[in-house]
Amino acid sequence: MDYYFIGDAELLTAFRFVGVEGSSVVNPEEAKAAFLKITQAYDGTAGTVLPGGPDCRVLIITEEVADWLGDDLTQWQLSGRYPLVVEIPGSMGRLEGRKTLVDSIREAIGIRV
């Protein structure tokens, strides 16, 4: 499995249509539990591979899930380990106050074309 999705049920259904497995979450506790399952390739006791496991290279999460994960997500991203995390807008659209990729690039290079 190369990709795994964590977000709302509607988007999970869409991702499953294209062959991407995932977890549907509705609150911060469920989001953190799903995130930990994916970022820890083994459960530590029996050595069994969990969903996502060592083959998961890209973790797709909604912006809402990213907000719920907070510092846990930041620490994971700074670690440089797989899976890489990609944030997408949820089924209700972009969260207010979030920058788009284009806005971030413009801010980084300092020019607007």
Explain what you see.
The chain is of the alpha/beta class and 113 residues long. The protein has one domain (3-109): ATPase, V1 complex, subunit F (Rossmann fold, 3-Layer(aba) Sandwich), CATH 3.40.50. 41% of the residues lie in helices and 17% in strands. The chain has five helices and four strands; from the N terminus they run E-H-E-H-E-H-H-E-H. It has helices spanning 9-17, 28-39, 63-69, 71-79, 101-109; strands spanning 3-7, 21-24, 58-62, 84-88. Strands 2-1-3-4 form a four-stranded parallel beta sheet, sandwiched between helices. Residues 42-48 have low confidence and may be disordered.
Short description:
The chain has helices at 9-17, 28-39, 63-69, 71-79, 101-109, and strands at residues 3-7, 21-24, 58-62, 84-88. The protein is of the alpha/beta class. Strand 1, helix 1 and strand 2 (21-24) form a beta-alpha-beta unit.
Features:
single chain, 113 residues, alpha/beta, Rossmann fold, four-stranded parallel beta sheet
CATH class: Alpha Beta
Q: Output the radius of gyration.
A: 15 Å
Number of domains: 1
Beta percentage is 15-25%
Instruction: Classify the helix fraction into a percent range.
Output: 40-55%
CATH homologous superfamily, by name?
ATPase, V1 complex, subunit F
* Record field, number of beta strands: 4
Helix and strand succession? EHEHEHHEH
Shape: globular
Strand order, largest beta sheet:
2-1-3-4
